[in-house]
Write a structure and sequence with these properties.
It is built from 21 helices and 20 strands. The chain is an alpha+beta fold. It folds into two domains: about 375 residues, Rossmann fold (3-Layer(aba) Sandwich); about 140 residues. Strand 9 and strand 10 form a beta hairpin. The N and C termini lie far apart (about 60 Å). About 0% of the residues have low confidence.
Length: about 525
């Protein structure tokens, strides 16, 4: 009965299914709507949107006229909107501002129109609706509470407007009755700015509720669950969860890659718990996991976002080929660009995706454009690192909770090699064997790494283990304010990150900081 109701009009699931029948045409119609609505803005006049909307080949003409952009390109226009000027890149003024990387005075600020907020609100329901509709017994989460830990909000740069992380803004604008019925936490707790206070109060309330689902960034979930265990007073997190939340069913993940935390969270929550991942950013919800038995992400075609993709490696070309949903290839790495209903036009969001199928369009997030080691031609990505760690964890019966991968200090090492900094929930019995597994699995997975390792152009990696809590302490020391989306950079050629992380780890417990090499 639930499946029939949830997948019938006017349900978001019904609209999504309709859009998936002709993905290319759905995207073309969306772009035409955007061009038509923005034709009288400063941006629309600059690029001739009045003529553009009449073009028989709208997408091709749009791509000829409107350049690919990054945030610095759009920043002058966003700044005008921030200062209250209407009709800059989108009709009217923003209703709110999304912030990432700090506060609105120091972070990246993106305007949010009413249309975008409506699309975000509708899209945020899709993972839960799919789970309830397609998972046997999934509807029973509605008999209890869903515990969400969204980001905080603050007074915005324009009087009367709010700013914050999108998750916090969605909680702010959510219908009060719906929040009261489903949410485990009161609204004022969910919207608290201070992350430490929010964690403390959330745990205090959560242990008294019938929580059946968690929705949060997976990097903060272990910290939250450990504090739950401390309050309940059990030896393990699983014992605490089983005792206070006997009906717990599903973990909804977003913000960072779930794969790095899946094994740890499964050991905390239980083998029978389902995990559902979403791929979202301040610009929109781009894709989500619609099936429990498939970790690929279905592209969200009803989120008010027009997608463009550039092959990884072509982004520095003067006129790179701009692909759309209608002309993609599976197995190819693409950089994603988005246009949304808030006047962000062909904006690079810095993510690399790979499609596993085209009909329907399903993808996996491979990593960030900047999260790659390639100084010595090894082309090691964050996706490589996560998959290698997962394999080493399985082989060595360990659980790595957080990691950072960089190069070893070139002054100290004559031959270049990788330096892994690893935070374990379950430490392997033999760190040297774990390091050897990392090396072997990386050679199997990354051909360019293998061709440098085997002839000795790169040396074997070194591994530094740090005590539990080191990554969180590093974030506290390097951020003016912690939020639900604060996360450590997993892969970087900047050696200072590893140096600072290890330094913070030594402050926690110098006896548990250990570096090993397999050569």
């Amino acid at each position: 009965m639930f499946a029939h109701i949830l997948e019938s009009p006017p349900s978001p699931l019904w609209h999504l299914r309709q859009s998936l029948k002709e993905p290319g045409e759905s995207q073309r119609k969306l772009l035409q709507t955007m061009v038509c609505q923005a034709k009288d803005t400063a941006w629309g006049r600059m690029f001739g949107f009045t003529d553009l909307e009449k073009s028989p080949d709208l997408i091709r003409e749009f791509q000829c006229r409107v350049p690919l952009s990054d945030y610095t390109d759009l920043a002058p226009y966003i700044d005008r909107a921030v200062h209250g000027e209407p009709d800059v890149t989108w009709p009217g003024c923003p209703v709110a501002f999304a912030v990432s990387g700090g506060t609105h005075s120091g972070g990246r600020v993106l305007p949010l129109s009413r249309a975008t907020m409506v699309c975000l609100s509708r899209s945020s329901l899709l993972p839960g609706l799919c789970y309830i509709s397609r998972k046997c017994g999934g509807w029973t989460i509605l008999k209890g509470k869903i515990l969400s830990l969204p980001g905080g909000i603050e007074a915005g740069p324009v009087q009367g407007k709010v700013a914050g992380e999108v998750s916090g803004l969605l909680a702010y604008y959510a219908p009060r009755l719906l929040s009261y019925r489903l949410q485990a936490l009161p609204r004022h707790i969910m919207l608290m700015e201070d992350w430490e206070s929010k964690l403390r109060e959330s745990v205090r309330i959560a242990v008294r509720k019938d929580v059946r689902a968690l929705a949060m960034v997976p990097s903060w979930a272990p910290i939250f669950l450990e504090r739950v265990r401390e309050v309940v007073g059990t030896a393990t997190v699983l014992e605490a969860v089983t005792r206070i939340w006997p009906n717990f069913k599903v973990f909804f993940s977003g913000g960072v890659a779930l794969s790095s935390f899946h094994s740890v969270l499964q050991s905390y929550l239980g083998a029978s718990v389902d995990f559902i991942e979403s791929y979202s950013a301040s610009e929109g919800l781009f894709a989500f996991q619609d099936r429990c038995d498939d970790d690929s992400l279905l592209v969200n075609l009803i989120g008010g976002v027009f997608f463009e993709y550039v092959r990884l490696g072509d982004e520095h070309s003067s006129r790179p080929a701009r692909h759309t949903i209608g002309n993609l290839e599976p197995g190819v790495d693409y950089i994603i660009y988005v246009t949304n209903l808030s006047g962000l036009w062909s904006l690079c969001i810095g993510d690399i995706v790979r499609f596993v199928s085209i009909d329907p369009p399903r993808l996996r997030v491979i990593g960030r454009v900047g999260e790659m080691l390639d100084r010595y031609g090894d082309a090691t990505s964050a996706d490589h690192a996560r998959r290698v760690i997962a394999a080493a964890d399985k082989t060595c019966r360990a659980k790595c909770l957080g990691f950072h991968l960089t190069y070893a200090d070139p002054v100290e090492s004559k031959i270049p090699h990788h330096h892994w900094v690893l935070e374990f929930d379950t430490i392997p019995d033999n760190i040297t064997a774990y390091a050897r597994s990392l090396d072997e699995f990386m050679k199997q997975l990354n051909g360019r790494y293998r061709t440098r390792r085997e002839p000795g152009a790169m040396a074997a990696p070194i591994v530094t283990t740090v005590p539990l809590g080191s990554c969180a302490e590093y974030l506290r020391s390097t951020r003016k304010r912690l939020t639900g989306q604060s996360k450590i950079i997993n892969v970087s050629e900047d050696l200072n990150i590893a140096v600072s992380l290890i330094s913070r780890a030594r402050e926690i417990d110098p006896t548990r900081v250990r570096t090993v090499s397999i050569e």
